[in-house]
Amino acid sequence: MSAEALCRYVLRSIFASLMEGGECETLFALLDAALYDDTADEKETK
Predict the structure, then answer these.
(1) Which pLDDT value is given to residue 7?
(2) I need a surface site. Which of 28, 33, 36, 45 has the fewest CB within 10 A?
(3) Coil, helix or strand at residue 24
(4) pLDDT tens digits, residue range 2-42?
(5) Which pLDDT band, with edges at 50, 70 and 90, does 45 fall under?
(6) Inter-axis angle of helices 3-19 and 25-35, to 10 degrees?
(7) Exposed, middle or buried, 32 (CB in 10 Å: 0-12/13-18/19+)?
(8) Would you state the pLDDT for residue 36?
């Protein structure tokens, strides 16, 4: 899967979940861990 296709899939999943009233905390945490060196929890403790 190309990077563009993956980005479209992730964005559509986020928007669909938000429209259905779901929470995306797990997805955002996974994206944060995949895209950045420090996770959100590690940033708060620094």
Answers:
(1) 86
(2) 45
(3) coil
(4) 889 988 998 898 888 888 988 778 878 887 888 887 655 56
(5) low
(6) 160
(7) middle
(8) 86
pTM: 0.48
Give how far Cα 4 sits from Cα of 10, 23, 28, 32, Å: 10, 24, 18, 18
Q: Alpha carbon of 43 to those of 6, 7, 39: distances in Å?
A: 26, 25, 6
| Distance of alpha carbon 39 from alpha carbon 30, whole angstroms | 9
Name the residue type at position 7: C
Token pair for 28: 């955002």
Structure tokens at 26: 């797990």
Structure tokens at 29: 């945490």
